[in-house]
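Morning, I've got a small favour to ask if you have a moment. I've been staring at a protein lately and its backbone has me curious. You're getting the sequence in one-letter code plus the fold written as tokens. I've dropped the whole record in just underneath, so have a look:
=====
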Amino acid sequence: MTRETDLQALITSVNIAEEIDVDTLKDMGKQVYDWYEMDENSRSEWMDKYEEYMKLATQVSSNKNFPWPDAANVKYPLLTIAALQFAARAYQSLIPNNKVVKARVIGNDPTGEKAARAKRVSNYMSYQLLEEMDTWEDQMDRTCLILPIIGNVFKKTYWDGTKMVSELVLPKDLCVDYYASSLEDASRKVHKLYYYPNEVTRQIRMGHFLDVDLPKESNTYDGNHSEAEDELLGITPPSNDKDSPHEFLECHCTWDLDEDGYEEPYVITIHKDTKKVVRVAARYDQTGIDTNEKGEIISIKPVEYFTNYVFINDPNSGVYGMGFGNLLGPLNEAANTLINQLIDSGTLDNLQSGFLAKGIKIPNGNTPLKPGEWRYVNTIGDDLRKGIVPLPTKQPSTVLFQLLGMMISSGQQLSSVTDLMTGENPGQNQPWSTTSEVLRQGLQVFSSIYKRIHRSMKREFKKVYRLNMLYLEDEKYFAVLDQSGPEDEIAVIGKADFEDESMDIVPNSDPTNVSNAEKLAKAESLMALLQLGSVNPQVATKRILEAQDQDNIAELMQMPEPQPDFDAQVKMQELQLQASEQEMQKVKIQYQAARDEANATLTMAKAQSEVERTELEKLKVQFDAELQQAKLMMEAKEKEMDIQLQELKILQEEIKAKAQADKAQAENAKENTTS
């Protein structure tokens, strides 16, 4: 390569290695391999911890020969529980619905054009990640599980020639200097790739790789799984045969190809066994080149493929983070030791051993007695008691139980995996406000972790945005994944929507809402403000329904009627006023005619009313006469009834007097008879 080499030609070349001489390629291959070994050695201790933490998390167990063969070797899942609990909360929080990406307008937008474009970008990128890149959501699910165990994972975002890819890269497969200040500032990074022979052939025929003579057997295969993962799954790496995958080293570094004294960013891929360079590709574009007045290159901004997801920042490394493996590993090992000691103690107490005197002969003496079994011995009772000495043992210690409980409790506090956060009852008669506050305080640690993950997702989405700007079609139809409507909407987007940076691409998730409880608490606050009339009712209602994860929100909300144009209203009123003035004269004439007609009608009505009033007076006189007659008849009837009542009283008095006279006469007759 010479200085006159056109950088634009290097940028657009699929494989620059085709234009590089053999000696330079040989030097490249050797240098890349040396870089790989140096960086791998710098993180050797971290790799040992990686294997250890994976064994703890995946509950890998082996035979234990201390204090006796096949002694207890139980693994308490403290690290596993912490990782699963975090993954369950994180996945739901980071991908709450079908709206994964949100584009925010930057700057003024008087016409609303930017807002409309931002909506299209948001809808399409959400559809792109969830539907077109069909493995992206699965990769994020794995990310949420592996991240808390190891402390960090990587996402690699690139265009593979046919489609967009954003895949998970395990930390063991991306070799970076352990002491680099950050992933972006690292001088190089090596991605370990594993290709089956058929895939290598495909890359060669697509023009991505130079032709390479693959050895019949691969000597460096270490698989896509760690040793711990292989043991857990009960699998054995394939034998070294012709069908085994071959390992390639993809080095993201700098190299001075044009010999101008400045090293440009490139991706150099070598076959690990042969150290042969198979591909060289530019890791920059024309927009990233900065030159001085003489046309000399000052700096080149490299295109970054990788995004670093960090759980907790490691003070000793700017690339690799800390996870629950670092924090809970010693506690988990201590808990495992205590559990196994308790089990071994119970085994010794249940299966006693001891010493037998030589003079005592017991048939099958090494076989434990069965319940209800008796055996003959060649000695008397006293000699038997003296000749058998059991080994002194103790029951499992209560101190060990207490210590085990303290270890587990400390681990739960450190990982914020409390009973309340795992869904268990916090206690009877516990107010919801108290429970909510306890939960909020317990999730403070996770909130900071979610914010770090949120920032990493933002960087990943910006990489996807840039690739859309380069490779998206001019016009493309897609489905709008909207939970608020009954059906998905079909929309259109094009490369022009991604051609500038007038918008900010961020995740749609809220890193402050770690749990549903926090969402509901915010919804309750909005409801209180809504009742006070302090917020926009339409916006507040929408956010409340979203916090409650309601379906078909658009159907639930009553959209406001469109407000009429004020100027149009004024003009309409002026026209109506003019029409009213023209009609006024007509109305006056019609009113005068109507008034005359009404007067005539009134005169006639008055005359008719006089006749009707005379007839009414006659009816009144007749009615009064009939009423008076009825009154007289009623009075006569009342007098007749009074007379009958008086006659009835007189008759009652006569009957009473006659009865008394008859009684006195009878008594006199009785006295005369006696005399």
